[in-house]
Amino acid sequence: MSSESSPATLARQLTDAGYLTPSWRDAFTQVDRKRFIPDRVWIRGEGGYHPINRTTDPDRWNALVYDDQALVTQVEDDDEAATARVPSSSASMPRVVALMLDALAVADGMTVLEVGTGTGYNAALLAARLGDRHVVSVEMDPRLADTARARLKDAGYAPTVITGDGSRGCPARAPYDRVIATYALHKVPYALVEQTAPGGAIVLPWGTGLYNGVLLRLTVGEDGTASGPVVGDSAFMWNRRETPERDVMATVRHQDGDQAADTRTGLDPRDVFGDENAAFTTGALVPNSRYTVGHGPDGEFTVWLADHTTGSWACVDYVPGATERDEYDCRQHGPRRLWSEVETAYAWWRNAGSPERTRYGLTVTPTGQRLWLDTPGTPVP
Ligand SMILES: C[S@@+](CC[C@H](N)C(=O)[O-])C[C@H]1O[C@@H](n2cnc3c(N)ncnc32)[C@H](O)[C@@H]1O
């Protein structure tokens, strides 16, 4: 660690790299990320997330705190020392925090609702910029909410931290000029739109079952709808409310594989999963789908898709060399033929000219949401 590491060095690094605008520079310089990071964090590495302990590895821990990287701060499978697989909270990558706050476009006097308090670092930045009374943050995990409250207080900030489901927002303090989500959503809860003042904005990471994710900036209209474009990329952990079944393979194991239909497909799975724009669109057109990839020897892999709501699943084997025959083995099971749906969605994307994900936008109304391409008047099928 450089002996000079401090919030100011982090702010300078982010400014030099073009991620931090003058509007947020003072807040990043003031708020010390270190005060919000627990003594044990996990960083992504071989086979999962590896713990770094402040007590046993203080130099590494200190360097990480002021580095521009995401730190997992809580895992579900915590057994003290070992590699973990399921992160449940994190301190987001500082450059992503800076870009999202910039996209929020706040001005003095505005009120902000954050959903996903996590460590409390982002709430502290908001409080430093706008004042404690102007910031409300909601965290679903009671232990995290309590810890964030305590850390915020110790660091000299006092935004309101509510323990609850961010999908409901915090109606008691509405309307807000800005709403920011720091977990990824599939479906934008209408409560967040309702609680945003007309003309206000919502910035949120949004993903499809096959791609996590993009950053959306929605503007709320007088008519109570919210609409806006994709403004960038941002991969986040999912809304806890929308991940009832994290494990694709659990859906597969519950089914009777003997009844699966064996077919062949001409669609190379790499064309879908190896192209971020194809994966984003395909995921949007094949709702409730999740996927995982199992790697075999010599470059072989199998993509598994599942829809836990219907118990449907599909798998496609990629075998190097099979490309020449343009055919891959495929199995499908359940009321939905998920791979067939992927084929149709992929064909739509190709016919539409293989649009990049930045050409899409979303409109949210009281009755649901719809994805559009280029303008709100052109919904995708
Ligand atoms: C990436 S972390 C947030 C980072 C945080 N803003 C920070 O500054 O540290 C995502 C957080 O969202 C929380 N979360 C997920 N789903 C939620 C929900 N439906 N309501 C409220 N919090 C939720 C998780 O518990 C987790 O702490």
Features:
Rossmann fold; globular; 5-stranded antiparallel β-sheet; 9-stranded mixed β-sheet; 381 residues; 18 strands; 30% strand; alpha+beta; binds S-adenosylmethionine; 11 helices
Helix-strand layout with pairing:
Layout: H1 7-16, H2 22-30, E1 40-45, E2 48-53, H3 58-65, E3 71-75, E4 87-91, H4 94-104, E5 112-115, H5 121-130, E6 135-139, H6 142-154, E7 160-163, E8 176-181, H7 190-194, E9 196-208, E10 211-220, E11 226-233, H8 248-253, E12 261-265, H9 269-273, H10 276-285, E13 290-295, E14 301-307, E15 312-318, E16 328-333, H11 338-351, E17 360-365, E18 368-373
Parallel strand pairs: 5-6, 5-8, 6-7, 8-9
Antiparallel strand pairs: 1-2, 3-4, 9-10, 10-11, 11-17, 12-16, 13-14, 14-15, 15-16, 17-18
The structure holds S-adenosylmethionine.
What are the segments in which pLDDT stays under 50 over at least 5 consecutive residues? none
State Rg.
22 Å
End-to-end gap: 52 Å
CATH architect. name of the largest domain:
3-Layer(aba) Sandwich
Average pLDDT number: 92
SS content category: alpha+beta
Helix content estimate: 25-40%
| Tally of individual domains | 2
**Secondary-structure element series:** HHEEHEEHEHEHEEHEEEHEHHEEEEHEE
**Percentage of β-strand residues:** 25-35%
CATH class of the largest domain: Alpha Beta
Q: Compute the number of strand runs.
A: 18
Structure description:
By secondary structure, the chain is of the alpha+beta class. The chain has 2 domains: 7-233, Rossmann fold (3-Layer(aba) Sandwich); 246-351, no CATH class. The chain is 27% helix and 30% strand. It has 11 helices and 18 strands. It has a 9-stranded mixed sheet with strand order 7-6-5-8-9-10-11-17-18. 44% of the residues are buried. The mean pLDDT is 92. S-adenosylmethionine (SAM) binds next to strand 4, helix 5 and strand 6.
